[in-house]
């Protein structure tokens, strides 16, 4: 049974065993575009990927299923070489600890996502990046665009264009890298991992 057949079975919940790790050739392949209308399997795959992210951020489900917390997942990480990503970034509580008005700043399954324009300015997360496919800590600034405009399709085949900045921009770029065979540490300066270029934003 192929990975997509296993993962899209009705009772299957994606867990860490479904996620392939660095060194696996699928993570270095350029994934194939999906065509519309999507197959039922491709729609279910997107829903299962989003369900995994919700589970990974829920302390009870994460413990039950043994999940690492995640804000994004790309189909190639499941050994499915298709241009499908899911992103789920929660909004923080306010200073008084009240829940945010909107639970998520971005919650989307994107089919064939593509960066169509980006800022000249670069940005990196102060704490570096992690990845569900990488079981080790890789220190260094992962240099990305500070702002991006992304085109993508939803499961109905409708086209969307969104402008992203800050953390959301970094998360989506990380996942788009996965469908292009790029790992986050490819973007760390090997000679000086914490080098800061002129004007680069460091996001804490």
UniProtKB/TrEMBL annotation:
Fe cation binds at residues 131, 174, 178. GO terms for biological process: translation. Gene3D superfamilies: Peptide deformylase. Pfam families: Pep_deformylase. Its cofactor is Fe(2+). Belongs to the polypeptide deformylase family. This is Peptide deformylase. The gene is def.
């Amino acid at each position: 049974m192929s990975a997509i057949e296993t993962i899209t079975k009705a009772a299957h919940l994606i867990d860490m065993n479904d996620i392939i790790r660095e060194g696996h050739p699928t993570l270095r392949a350029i994934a194939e575009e999906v065509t519309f209308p999507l197959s039922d399997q491709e729609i279910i795959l997107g829903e299962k990927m989003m369900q995994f992210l919700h589970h990974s951020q829920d302390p009870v489900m994460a413990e039950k299923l043994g999940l690492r917390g995640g804000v994004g997942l790309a189909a190639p990480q499941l050994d499915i070489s298709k241009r499908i990503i899911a992103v789920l970034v929660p909004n923080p509580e306010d200073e008084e600890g009240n829940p945010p008005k909107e639970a998520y700043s971005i919650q989307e399954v994107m089919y064939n996502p593509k960066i169509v324009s980006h800022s000249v300015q670069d940005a990196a997360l102060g704490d570096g990046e992690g990845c569900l496919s990488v079981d080790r800590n890789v220190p260094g600034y992962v240099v990305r665009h500070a702002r991006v405009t992304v085109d993508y399709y939803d499961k109905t085949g409708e086209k969307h264009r969104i402008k992203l900045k800050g953390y959301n921009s970094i998360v989506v770029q990380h996942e788009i890298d996965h469908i292009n065979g790029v790992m986050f540490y490819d973007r760390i300066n090997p000679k000086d991992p914490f080098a800061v270029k002129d004007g680069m934003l460091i996001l804490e």
